[in-house]
């Protein structure tokens, strides 16, 4: 079935429909994750420290700006 496979904190696996997905993991760029995501979806935005080092306020602004575009 089409959709996004989500695993809950309790370990339950669910398939959800999603128009957009936001992945937030750790504080270091995960370039290998970016490559996997780009190979599966047509539109990917890399923001915050994954793009370049920033402070929290700059990262939030960048996320806000990207969110307005989608």
Please give a structural write-up:
The protein is globular and about 35 Å long. A hairpin with a 5-residue loop joins strand 1 and strand 2. It is α+β, with helices and mostly antiparallel strands. A two-stranded antiparallel ribbon has the order 1-2. Helices cover 34% and strands 11% of the residues. The two termini are 25 Å apart. The protein has helices at residues 31-40, 56-69, and strands at residues 4-7, 13-16.
Q: Strand count, sense and closure of the main sheet?
A: 2 strands, antiparallel
Give the strand order, joined by hyphens, for the main sheet.
Answer: 1-2
Give the distance, in angstroms, between the N- and C-terminal Cα atoms: 25 Å
The percent range for strand residues is 5-15%
Mean pLDDT: 83
Compute the CA-based radius of gyration. Answer: 14 Å
Structural class: alpha+beta
Q: Spans with pLDDT under 50 lasting ≥5 residues?
A: none
Residue share in helices? 25-40%
Given the structure, what is the number of helices? 2
Order of H and E elements: EEHH
Number of E strands: 2
Overall spatial form: globular
């Amino acid at each position: 079935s089409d959709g996004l496979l989500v695993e809950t904190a309790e370990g339950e696996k669910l398939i959800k429909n999603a128009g957009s997905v936001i992945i937030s993991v750790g504080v270091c760029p995960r370039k290998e994750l970016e490559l996997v995501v780009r190979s599966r979806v047509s539109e990917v935005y890399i923001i915050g420290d994954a793009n370049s080092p920033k402070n929290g306020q700059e990262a939030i602004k960048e996320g806000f700006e990207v969110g307005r575009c989608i």
